[in-house]
Amino acid sequence: MSAQKILIVTNGFYPEISPRSFRATELAKELVRQGHQVTVLTHPREDVSEFCAKHGIEYKNMGAITWKPFTIKGSGLVRLFWRLVTRFSSLLFEYPNIQIISLLKKTLCQFSGYDLMISVAVPYPIHWGVAAVRTSKKPIAKKWIADCGDPYMGQENDTFKPPFYFGWLEKRFCRKADYITVPTSASINGYYPEFRSKIRVIPQGFKFEDVQRSNEPLNQEKIIFGYGGMFIPGRRDPSEFLNYLNSLDQSIKFEFHVYTTTPHMVEPFIENSKGRIILKPIVKRDALLFEMSKMHFVVNFENVGSTQTPSKLIDFAIIEKPILSIKFGGLKTEVVDQFLNQDYQNAFKIEQADQYRIERVAQQFLNIE
Question: In 1-159, which residue ranges form alpha helices assigned H by DSSP?
Answer without folding.
Answer: 19-33, 48-54, 76-93, 99-107, 125-133
